[in-house]
Design a protein that fits this description.
The protein has 291 residues and is α+β, with helices and mostly antiparallel strands. It is 26% helix and 21% strand. The strands form three sheets. It has a four-stranded antiparallel β-sheet with strand order 1-6-7-5. Helix 1 packs parallel to helix 8, helix 5 crosses helix 8 and helix 7 packs across helix 8. It binds a DNA duplex (16 and 16 nucleotides) through loops.
Length: 291
DNA sequence: CACTTGACCTGTCCGC
DNA sequence: TGCGGACAGGTCAAGT
């Protein structure tokens, strides 16, 4: 479930909390979550200082003083939550739905303890997520990063760039293309449905049937949907929380996602849910006509 | 090349 | 109350 806005919020939070802290201890209990943990942790993670937290697509990157990076992908149910020493000891003073004071729990797979006693928890109920320690120089070469398209919120990414990338796949349905990380990086199921509703485009529209005006609208919709989601703390369906264990409220503002059977806020027609690209897909059948 | 299906996992919900 | 099955959605690999 974490898509670009959620991962960006976690990045922002961690980048406030982690830089300057030195790793003292690493515990992990699920090998697939951290496949190269044995070989490199002692050499490049223990004793290293966190310098900066960055993001590419839906991946978080903790830059370390050891010239390595700890890369994390949250996939659908992953969480990366920081807890300071005081909260670890007392746990109190936080809202009842906050995770702080309740960690580790049964979904905790990795615990990083810093020299000052604070901890970073990697939780993942469904165990799809992963952490990997890689030399900085190798980051651009791993498959995951190599094939990614541009960041939609980069200032130099324009609607014409979007058009050029979409035109490489004229016969693809627009929703499939939005979900394809090699076309644009960071969009997932929630924000593709929301962007398409906002631009009044049916998710199954073939790209060759989209005039420039629609692609421009889609570009604008995508950017404003992503920015609104960041402003609202992201979308929490079940699992997503930020770097301090707080949930996001964007789904309260969603127009179609998980709103099948409710009325379209633009025209009053009932929102429907179909299956497309193997995913639940939500749309207004009147606003979003298939051409 | 476009598209679908299955795999990876667990928790929740629905119908019987 | 318990049980089986469908479903949730990010990514990759394999099949149509």
């Amino acid at each position: 479930m974490p898509e670009l806005p959620e991962v960006e919020i976690v990045r922002y939070g961690l980048n406030v909390l982690l830089p300057g802290r030195t790793v003292e201890k690493v515990e992990f209990n699920w090998r697939k979550s951290f496949p190269n943990a044995d070989t490199d942790v002692n050499n490049f993670l223990i004793g290293a200082k966190v310098e900066e937290v960055t993001r590419r697509a839906k991946a978080l990157i903790l830059k370390l003083s050891s010239q390595n990076s700890l890369v994390t992908h949250l996939k659908m149910t992953g969480q990366l939550v920081f807890v300071d020493k005081k909260s670890l000891r007392f746990g109190a003073g936080h809202p009842s739905d906050s995770l702080i004071g309740k960690l580790p729990d049964k979904s905790t797979h990795v615990i990083i303890t810093f020299k000052d006693g604070s901890k970073l928890f990697f939780n993942d109920q469904r165990k799809f997520g992963w952490m990997r320690l890689l030399p900085n120089a190798e980051l651009p070469q791993i498959d995951f990063f190599k094939k990614l398209g541009p960041e939609p919120l980069n200032k130099d990414f324009t609607w014409k760039d979007l058009k050029a990338r979409l035109n490489h796949r004229p016969n693809t349905k627009i929703k499939s293309a939005l979900l394809d990380q090699s076309v644009i990086a960071g969009i997932g199921n929630i924000y593709s449905d929301e962007s398409l509703w906002s631009a009044k485009i049916h998710p199954a529209t073939q790209i060759c049937n989209l005039p420039d005006t629609k692609i421009k609208k889609l570009y604008q919709a995508m950017v404003s949907v992503l920015m609104l989601a960041i402003e609202k703390g992201g979308s929490t369906d079940k699992n997503y929380v930020d770097a301090e264990g707080r949930r996001g409220s964007y789904l309260l503002f969603a127009n179609v996602f998980r709103r099948e059977g409710q009325v379209c806020s633009r025209c009053g027609t009932l929102i429907i849910k179909i299956r497309l690209a193997g995913r639940g897909t939500h749309l207004c059948p009147k606003c979003q006509r298939l051409v």
